[in-house]
Amino acid sequence: MKILGISAFYHDSAAALVIDGSIVAAAQEERFTRKKHDLGYPKNSIEYCLNFAELKASDIDYVVFYDKPLAKFDRLLKTYFAFAPKGFTSFREAIPVWLKDKIFHKRQIIKEFSLMDGDINWSQKLIFSEHHLSHAASAFYPSPFQRAAVLTMDGVGEWTTTSLAIGNGRDLKVLREIHFPHSIGLLYSAFTYYIGFKVNSGEYKVMGLAPYGEPRYVDLIKTHLIDIKEDGSFRLNMAYFDYCTGLRMTNDRFHDLFGAPPRFADVPLTQRDMDLAASVQVVTEEIVLKLARNIAKETGERNLCLAGGVALNCVANGKLLRENIFDNIWMQPAAGDAGGALGAALAGYHLFSGKSRSVEAEGDAMKGSYLGPDYSQKEIEKRLTDAGAKFETLDDRAFIEFCACALDEGKAIGWHQGRMEFGPRALGARSIIGDARSPTMQKILNLKVKYRESFRPFAPSVLREDVSSWFDLDSDSPYMLLVADVKAEKRIVMSDSEKMLFGIDKLNIKRSSIPAVTHVDYSARVQTVHKNTNPRYYSLIARFKELTGCPVIVNTSFNVRGEPIVNTPEDAFRCFMGTGIEILAIGNCILKKETQDQSLVKSYENNFELD
Hints:
Layout: E1 2-7, E2 14-19, E3 22-28, H1 30-33, H2 43-52, E4 62-65, H3 69-83, H4 88-100, H5 105-116, E5 126-128, H6 131-140, E6 147-153, E7 160-168, E8 171-179, H7 184-195, H8 203-209, H9 218-225, E9 226-228, E10 234-236, H10 252-258, H11 271-299, E11 303-307, H12 314-322, E12 328-331, H13 337-352, H14 377-386, E13 392-393, H15 396-408, E14 413-416, E15 430-435, H16 441-449, E16 459-463, H17 467-470, E17 482-485, H18 496-499, E18 523-529, H19 535-548, E19 552-557, H20 569-578, E20 583-586, E21 589-592
Parallel strand pairs: 1-4, 4-5, 6-11, 11-12, 14-20, 16-18
Antiparallel strand pairs: 1-2, 2-3, 6-7, 7-8, 9-10, 13-21, 14-15, 15-19, 16-19, 17-18, 20-21
């Protein structure tokens, strides 16, 4: 049975293909259109999935959409009526969009598939899942567990913002929900907006900024904004928020509470902004931990699966792991709305079609999340030649040796290998990599390559067998969704004067023997690299370890700020030529910046709208 899942029309549109229960292909639309968080119909993603599996549209048994648009419209109308007459301006802007486009998603999807094959009655093949059920399915079905509790947390789906489900074999049942407007995701997004970052894009910046601050506002948040119960359930005080009826997340009462209006994006960050970030992060962690403790107590389950945008908060995930509330935790790497496409397809197979489920004997069913397009060596060489690139082609051994030596020399490498990752993290297929031992690598990559804020940290990729020697972690973390501290023996003790520093002044202190991946609180967002899922990336780090004694390298996504992660060889070459990346390693081709046609060097910094 062949089932295609799609998510679209809100943010992070995607498509995923499941054949006989196996995840075959998945990709986000932004990687093809080059539009960050593209919300449009995922035409390119669908075509990729079908082409990869060598299928025609007529071969698809079911198409499953990841939520129910009419239920979302019901929430919109009831919310506006509940707050009327407040919010009329927002209502006036939103309703025409819904009446023109969003309420007719079914008709649009059928039309698009009819263009692919007009002889099929697509209305009989189209199924609508529910938003949080799709999230739960994306978390449970690919997990390594026969049974587990499933916690989903995000901004909002149709009505649900947080849900608890139990998965057992092919069965998945939602037991309890928290409904809009009470949302841990929207609380975090409100602070994202207030600190001056984009909602649905900048939340990870808040998480990265938090260690620079002190959680001075926790009591204020808990006194005025949110009531958190011992079981983790919560209610927001809507008197401080404007997202139900307005065109912004927070209102004047919120701004008065914290003593200032929202920060404009071009205004420098202050210590207060950092303290706000630290505070909402602490509150979020408290909710997640209380929810988890109650779930474990109530259900007796020993395994936990996570999905929804809040599951991308790897700091909270790391604390959850260290609390040992559950024996095992597994997070869906595409935890946001893009992953809803995968969950919809899996729900279509196991729940709607009643097909059995088998658990992988080793690891999970995500195949390392390497589910996107790849390119043959012949195709890479042709595309690079057509783009005007100059390159040399090496055999496998010489290729790994060259790249490992270049890392040791402190060079930044664009690494484009194999199938593209599905989800927001670069995992060694579309990555920019560097030497984690370099005290200047973090600043160089942020300012000269990524063109982004200096405070943002980089992640370490470490061989799985070496992770516990370098970090306070001894478990798999293949999807970069766990934060752990650098081992004490790898740290550099700060002087008394260094300890007195505040905010961004902390940035330039060398904190460990791997300073490029050590955040200001000695933490790191760890990716464990496994030979069975990414043998080439593993071989590179293993050779780097032989040369240097260090099994850790810097890994950040292959893009600039505001750009989707690169997909094609052409995307990679453009980014290489427009940034400070010194080496491009794509397939078995090596490109050196100094040998390229200098007329192809173009400013890349302002090509994309800042995130």
